[in-house]
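Changelog entry

Holo records now carry the ligand SMILES as an explicit input line rather than a separate metadata file. Below, a converted record for calcium ion, shown in the new format.
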Amino acid sequence: MNRTGIVRTATVAGVTAALGLAAAAPALAAPPVTTAADLNGDGELETVTVRQTGDDQLISATVDGTSTSIRLPLDSQFGLEALRVADLNGDGRAELIVTRSVGANTTFFSALHFDGRTLSPVVGPDDQPFSFAEGGGVAAHLGYTCNPFERGRAFAVVASENDDVSRPTGQFTYSGTRTAYTLRDGALSVQESTPITARPVNDPLLAVDAAGCA
Ligand SMILES: [Ca+2]
Ligand SMILES: [Ca+2]
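Structure line, unchanged by the conversion:
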């Protein structure tokens, strides 16, 4: 008889039971989610924390000993989502991508910029906090990436709709816009806006990859 094997099995079962109990315990409050990002571009990572405060998410960081925080609405149905760290202009200072709402197929984001003292929303050409999306399911093709531009990067956002969802999946085409932005001092300017007309999903104009901004 292999006694060692029995003991091991019993131990694994005990651990599983313990984990089961832990999982069944009621969740009191979502724990804060931390992310490391070099906000000021000095080569040292800062810790950025996002925590739920009622219907909001409070994003806070300490840079060079000074704390900064900003409060944004939270999709309370979905809960806290980790921040994405990006460098939208390739200047070595991180921007933060914050999940604002989560739909069945589409996630909406805004971006934060650290100006040397505080975190503030990245604004679009209209001077309003910029919003962008990823996903779209069958009806749309949405996303973003970053591409090399001059000595840094451009931030490219694709927003397109399926031309005819009644077609077979392999024949879907999308129309919309691919807009490349440059980010300076927390504000986006349009570098290039390219219409997308009835292109298949594998067309380069539709290419998006969030990792391109990491
Ligand atoms: Ca730093
Ligand atoms: Ca940057």
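Spot-checked after migration. The chain has one domain: 33-213. The chain has one helix and 13 strands.
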